[in-house]
Amino acid sequence: MAAAHTSTATEVCGEFRVRAVCPGPVGNVRCVPSSLSPAAGPAPTRARDRRADLLVTLAALALALWVTSGMWRDPNSRAITVNSSDQALFEWLLAFGGHTLTHGQNPLFTTLINVPDGVNLAVNTSITVYAAVFAPLTYLIGPPATFLVILTLNLAATAVAWYWLLSRHLVGSRLAAGVGALFIAFCPAMVSHANAHLNWTAGWLVPLLIWGVFRLRRPGRAVTGGVVLGLLVAVAFSIAAEGLFFTALALGVFLAVWALHPARRSEVRAALPRLAAGLGVTALVAGVLLAYPLWLHFLGPQRFHGTGFDPLIHSEDIAAYGSYPRRSLAGWAGWGTSLAPNPTEENSFFGVPLLVLAVACFALLWWRADRAFRATLAALGVTAVVFAVLSWGPTVKWNGRRFDQTLPFGVLDNLPVINAALPSRLALVVAPVIGLLLAYAIDTLRARPPRHRVSGLAWTLGFVAALLPLVPTPLLTSVREPIPAFITSGAWQRYVPPDGVLTPLPLTVDVYPDGQRWQAHALAHRQGEFRIPAGFFLGPGGPEGRGRIGPVPRTFDSLMDQAGKTGLVPIITDGSIRASQADLRYWGVRAVVLPDRVHGAKYDVDEEALRRTATALLGPPERVEDVWLWRVPA
């Protein structure tokens, strides 16, 4: 039966006789119940479904723990090897968010970092909702352990949320829903972003947003559905604004193609007033909740245009779609490639077998579908192609080689908001489309098995050959330098007045995240506040009014960066001494601190060269606890 209507009727769906609301444009070729009545079917069937639900949930949690297993050995001393800087940033955001909640401070703007200018967190990834919800846990077990809990739950919850959407609204087979959901949650892109991206791994938001949009088509849902969707939009903006933007774009493309299909036009005309009314309520609710964050994002201090990343670098290599990721069984076997700009951005990497399987699933579904469901397939196909092409960035890149041919993103990159998106991340939309095709195909094959056993065996082998190489392997982790006792014991309070400024050496930026780790520890353990110059954030100062990572460098931090990176003491002149002292006065620094071991996120840091350089600029240090300290007069 085609899911081509929204009326409520008594249907026979699989083994259940239910009161079902057919889900319309996202439905399969047969009606699937949106809810079961108390007498929905025989007890053995209901028990089997509950067991299936439990098995998928346990599988999702087991895979999430497997992927993050390297950090569970000791969350406070281990870090994600390829992205310890982002991990430190999110740990700081969790500690800062909890601190603002308990102290009544602004969670979206701060002068604790980048003194004296401060940082606009509305244009950064502030994860405000996570910081507030998990604040008690942050105070109880600390920011590193809380970060790990959220990361693990993100992966598991993404699988569970997609499974719920698939099994309750899109397909009848629990097996089909489980395969589709687990693929989406642990596809190469999600495992790649599990390298410390708490925003992008919050993929559980996407199926909820999809459900919220299509729920608006039902009669009488304009107000309640709009309120629920408005709340979801506000939460999604506060956790992953870029992901919310991509989801809205993908739904817009899907609905446009689906609505223009001749088989759906009458349904669109009937549902359009309800959908428009519901979206109006959604805009009102989300607008009220997000009025200040949006003002701060677009008009507030320390805002910027575009992004601090080069779209040419952060675009998807076309060959990456047929390649394998590094954190997978295929990568473990040596078949992985390095076509991504960095290990956290393997946003496609499906492998040739999966691409072939996805095309075969599409062909099977198209062949068996009626005219109405073909509208859904056409919309899914166009959405996948559009976002795949956009992910290739401004110009063509094949197997690491850049060509001059301009692509669509090269034209769109000048548009507001779009110029703040990294093109390679648009490939994240393709994975759910493939997951939906896999689920639909399995559901169809189970409902109408192939006539010949050879065909059934071929399909089984195809799924195994496509998905087995993509089974994830644990993230790479390593031991990072501990926070000095000078910070953990609270000794810093003797040298920095309340709300005073302390700086580690080198100054805190993305490659030297220690300062924000120290500050996060002090905030989470209620030691009080100290501020730091610089920091890891996006702010103004980039070329052509765009953003940049961290502040514009000054003399003092440039000299320290040179010493720590090269291991050589730079030439120190009277002019550089005066400029460095002026920098310290500009920041209001009262204490300069060098630990025995500095954590370098990308390379080892030479602590001895740093000590000698700082001594040449500021004079001999004093030893306090386990750090070298230079006092700076007020």
From TrEMBL:
Spans through the membrane: 54-72, 147-166, 173-191, 197-214, 221-239, 245-263, 275-295, 348-367, 374-393, 422-442, 454-471
Superkingdom in the source lineage: Bacteria
Keywords recorded for this protein, A-Z: Membrane, Transmembrane, Transmembrane helix
Pfam families recorded: DUF6311
Domain DUF6311 span(s) in chain numbering: 106-411
InterPro entries according to UniProt: DUF6311
Name of the protein in question: Predicted membrane protein
Protein source organism: Micromonospora marina
